[in-house]
Amino acid sequence: MKIGIDLDGVVIDSETTFRTYEEIFDIDILKGNNLINKEEPKFQARYNWTNEQEKEFIERYFLTVSKESNLMSGFIGVYNLLKNQGHEFVVITARGGFVKEMKDDAIRLLEENNIKFNKYYWKVEDKLEICKNEKVDIMIDDDWKIIKKVADNKIKTLYFRDTNLTKLEENDYIKEVNNWGEIYRYIKEMEVK
Length: 193
Fold this sequence. Notes:
This protein has two domains: 2-13 and 70-192, 3-Layer(aba) Sandwich (Rossmann fold); 14-68, no CATH class. It contains eight helices and six strands. The chain has helices spanning 14-29, 43-46, 51-68, 75-84, 100-112, 127-134, 144-152, 180-192; strands at 2-5, 88-92, 119-121, 138-141, 156-160, 174-177. It has a six-stranded parallel beta sheet with strand order 3-2-1-4-5-6. The protein starts with a strand and ends with a helix. The relative contact order is 0.18.
């Protein structure tokens, strides 16, 4: 099976770290409460910040978040099991788009943990196009907008949903998961079908 996989919020626990620094930035730096929708996965939609404030947040915190982040709990064990069972992994990530060094930091973290994916796509804006071109059997992502777009095009998805993020109705193409054990269960069930 060919598995498309996002990095941030799926392999790397950076999304939780991002949300922590978003709150610090909003409260301590901007001295306000600009939170408009905590169900949104990306800060651009979570807060009512100006373009200049968004740019300041990126410059101030993106590399810090990257360096403080670790692999998601349970990822290494499940990844090794699936890899040994012959599954292929294609990384499809926006990482490296805002801050180039974040790509290098992700590579460092993966290499330190002896993780080698089959293929990498960095700085991606349209994950659907790559899913189609790569003929992925399933895409794992934590952004509901990406999940919906991919699923609407008849590609199976696993929505790695963190607390408070928008809930999607499950169907034949969308399944919600909250940890790597659930991902393993779902993939093993897909093999039987």
